[in-house]
Structure formats: C-alpha cells, structure tokens
Amino acid sequence: MVDKFDTFAERLKYLRSKSGLSLAALAKQLGVSAQAAHKWENGGRVDSDRLWALAALFKVDPSWLMQGPVIEDGLEKKPHFHYLVGAPSIPKTTDSGVFVPLLDAADVIEWTTQEGDISFDYHKGEWVACPAPHGGLTFALMVKGVSMENLGSKVSYSDGDMIFVDPEVEPTSGVRAVFSASGLSRKLDVVFRELIVEGGQRFWRSLNPQWPQAISPVEEKHQVLGVVIGKWSPER
C-alpha cells in the first residue's frame, strides 16, 4: 500500500520507483537539476509549483503527497482531487500553480472578488488540473444547459462540459465570458455567453442558433467575472 510511507521523501521515492523513472528523468520532466530531485528524496523542501507538478505527473492527490492520508473517524478521507484525462503529463504552471478550484455557480462571485493571497484552504471542494497558463483567480465551472451548444461548429459547449475561466483576461469582442446578470448581489445569477462588440455597442450572444433571444445587450449592472480560456469535454 502506498500510504504506509510516513514522509514526503518516502512517498516520492516510492512513486518514482513504481513509474520506472530515474532521478535524472524525473528532474528533466520537472525542469530541475538531478541534485534538486535527489534532495527531495532525502528530506529536502519542495516548492508548491513543483509539488503540484509531481502530483500531476504521478496522478496522485497533492495533499496526500505532501502530508500523507487524512484520517477521520478511523477512516481515510477521500481527497478532493481530479486529474483531467488527456492533459499533458506535466501541465504548464504559473505563479498560481497547476490546479484551480471547480466552483458551483453560487461560489463564483465570492471567489472572483476575494482579496489577499490565495490559499488552498480558501476552497475546500474539488481542485482540477488546468493545462493552460492562467492567472491566480482562474477557476473551473461546469456548463449547465445548451444555450452555448452549436453542434457541428468549431466552438460549442455542451451540458456537462468543464470550462476554465480567468478573471484576469481582458473581455474583448469574440471571447466567451461568464458574467453576473444582476451585479454582485445575486450569487446564483451567473451566465455564460459570447461577448460581441459592434459599432460601439456590446451584446451577449448564445451560440445555440435555436436559443430564444440569442442576442441581448450588455447592461450596466452586468459584471464580467472572467473570460473562458479553454474547456475539457468528456468522451461521448
């Protein structure tokens, strides 16, 4: 059993050995020296970005890798971790790390308007691997409904697709964005649409050609919460 190992160094050494990677190969994949990888397996400190990259490489929960299993009431607690099938072996990292929170619509406004340093304790739910470069407030959101579905088109978002949303990207014409239709007062009023700017006017557009009122004006009370930078879709 993997969880018999008491330290980060022992867990890392076990995973590397099980995968068949040499220290040099592990170091090359993470972009560090072999000496740095050797130190990790001998009690050396690992920074947060490398921790997330190691977790993604070995497809394990990062909290387990660092701290070991969490026991509650005599049972091992199931980790909040999801590794995206098809993502690169080592997802690209930014200062914010590899993983982003998977939010419910009710949590989006609170997440995007928070102040101060981001910590992994801020969101107790599931974190998912984001394979694209992203800002520190990026989050994942599940698409609900078919208003943005346009089957047969190059750009289409179906019910159940996971989108990655970055609040730090400038909302320009042609981007898909998530916005609050009633300002920041109603947490459940979060909408996903394409932004269109024409003749100095701004509109929201549904990609589904059959959707009622497919185009509507951007109102002053609308608050853009972030721009979609990518999506992940399950196998059909």
UniProtKB/TrEMBL annotation:
UniProt-recorded Gene Ontology molecular function terms: DNA binding
Species of the source: Duganella aquatilis
InterPro entries named among the record's database cross-references: Cro/C1-type_HTH (IPR001387), Lambda_DNA-bd_dom_sf (IPR010982), LexA-like (IPR039418), LexA/Signal_pep-like_sf (IPR036286), Peptidase_S24_S26A/B/C (IPR015927)
Protein name: Helix-turn-helix domain-containing protein
Domain of life: Bacteria
Record domain HTH cro/C1-type: where: 12-65
Pfam families: HTH_3, Peptidase_S24
UniProt keyword annotations, A-Z: DNA-binding, Transcription, Transcription regulation
